[in-house]
Amino acid sequence: MDIPFLDSWRRRHGEERDDSLASAFARDPEGVAELLAECELLRARVAQAGVMLDDTPRSLELIDQLPPRWRDDPEELPWIGNDAGLYLGTVIVRTVPGARWGVWPGGQPMVRLPSGREINVVEAGLDWAMTGSPELSQMYAEAAES
């Protein structure tokens, strides 16, 4: 949170703190991974359609088959896309050996595969939410092959 007078007080008293995603990963990678896995809006919307997300590749296939009702709501669309990308990343990290979360220089989360390939999962989720392509299950399959 940006509170100017509090930031000034912290600087005077030597309490400079880095609240970036990268520093949060450095302090508590498992905790940050759990936060990224929440995907609350996506979980709620797919549950309404009778789909339970269990962090498996099969759940990505089920999400791909849902009617894209979120496209009718321009306010919800980017949030669903963001959640879909984070959920894709969660499934990759939890099921592809050696895959792990990372942070782009701009502070956005990404997934780094054992091959060194880096996947911008949030961008992939937004593309999927807006157009349906590439499918989340397809992105997962490509990541699992690497």
List the helices and strands and how they pair.
Elements: H1 4-12, H2 21-27, H3 29-37, H4 40-48, H5 57-64, H6 77-95, E1 100-103, E2 109-112, E3 118-119, H7 121-131, H8 136-145
Antiparallel strand pairs: 1-2, 2-3
Helix pairs in contact: 2-3, 5-8, 6-7, 6-8
| Rounded radius of gyration (Å) | 17 Å
What's the main sheet like?
3 strands, antiparallel
List low-confidence stretches.
Answer: none
Distance between the termini: 38 Å
Number of helices: 8
Number of strands: 3
Envelope shape: globular
Mean pLDDT: 88
Strand line-up in the sheet with most strands: 1-2-3
Oligomer: single chain
The share of residues in helices is 55-70%
Question: By helix and strand content, what is the structural category?
Answer: mainly alpha
**Strand residues, percent:** 5-15%
Order of helices and strands: HHHHHHEEEHH
Question: Explain this structure to me?
Answer:
The chain has about 150 residues and is mainly α. It is about 55% helix and about 5% strand. It is built from eight helices and three strands, in the order H-H-H-H-H-H-E-E-E-H-H. The chain has a three-stranded antiparallel beta sheet. Strand 1 (about 100-105) and strand 2 form a beta hairpin. Helix 2 (about 20-25) crosses helix 3 (about 30-35) and helix 6 (about 75-95) packs across helix 7 (about 120-130). About 25% of the residues are buried.
